[in-house]
Amino acid sequence: MNGDSGRIEHFIAMLDDEDPSRRWRAAETLGRIRDDRAVEPLILALDDEDWRVRQKAAWALGKVGDPRALVPLRRAYRNELEGVKEIIDEAVDEIKRNMSISVRSSEEG
What we know:
Elements: H1 5-14, H2 20-33, H3 39-45, H4 51-64, H5 70-77, H6 82-108
Helix pairs in contact: 1-2, 2-4, 3-4, 4-6, 5-6
């Protein structure tokens, strides 16, 4: 997204905030912005100590839709709480859906 660079950097930096509620709100905002610059920081947030941050990071990765998140999401799934696993499943499905839409669009183009 053009012009949002400072805003995106701000929310990426907030993923390291000491307050978990600020971290999960940052992950949620990055998911709503849907900029692929947030993919790597969100992948790192899948290892956050707070389950709410991990859950929002998984949700956000699904919204961004970047296939780079598939392996880290699957890896995170193994040791996760049930509620977080559900969001990880949804994120993986959303990324796969985006990938198939992209493939179909490029084949038609």
